[in-house]
Amino acid sequence: MDFMNKLTRQVTVKGIKIGGGAPVTIQSMTNTDTADAEKTIAQIQQLEQAGCDIVRASVYNAEAALAFRKIKENISLPLVADVHFDHRLAISAIENGADKLRINPGNITKEEYIKLLADCAKAHKVPIRIGVNAGSLSKTILAKYGHATPQALVESALENIALLEKYSFYDIVVSVKVSDVKKMTESYMLMSAVCDYPLHLGVTEAGTVELGTVKSAIGIGSLLLQGIGDTIRVSLTGDPVNEIKAAQNILRSVGLYNKGIEIISCPTCARTCIPLEAIIAEVEVATAHIITPLKVAIMGCVVNGPGEAKEADIGLAGGGGNGEKAAIFKKGQLLCTVEQEYMVATLIKEINNMVK
What we know:
alpha/beta; TIM Barrel; eight-stranded parallel beta sheet
């Protein structure tokens, strides 16, 4: 893909760059009790193994803020404190090691509290994400627009940017999330047009893994294709590790992620002559550890199979009257023809040889 992201300002979070031409980063959020440091550490380590770049945890009481110190000592990912309502918890999280702060401006309302936060974050060199969403707009903005329109979300973000800038704080990331995909994309397009701070993309409260991934792919993906967006989170109900795979697939689909195995496979039809789903599942498990970028085609028959397999780095195409054989192509050339019982093992062996 030859498009360029809009060049935004750059923010650094524990050595990871957001914006300013840096690669789009993948974020997620823990759903353990933050005060239970051991469980939270374990989940963050799982997220890191899955490919997460930045992780966020809720800080909802004093114990959660204090737990940040122990959590930080046992992880390597940048840790973001997600704080609502109480500026004192945000300050405590920063003092206990938070690398970044996410605040919801609609529920920390007093300007004096924002000043205290800005001063503390500046002293500790901690960026702040202004996280606007439909449920956090001020009464004034809701009275003006009637409901959470894209214009309302953007105006709220700009008001709070101006408030931080008033206290000479500029280490800012912005998000304008809603659960409606159309409103979400409109909000970010408006925000991008009037703001050069890096943008954190996401469809908030997207739903279950299936529906939430679809909504996120449409919303996040369409913006990335326009060059909008510097960091993303796919918000899914349940295990946050699922968010990482979805985010990687979205970025891969728009040409912004090239780590690991990308499997290309046909949708299957009556001509499919090999157990395609079972083969793909086995290959996915066997290659999950690989980070070298590699395109693998697994095709069910001889119609499009050989052509697609040749276009990939390595590919397998079913053949024979009953799928008793398969052809394996490597870098566009026929490598070998194998019996069905050996096709998966041979493909995995050749993949491993290519990434050594």
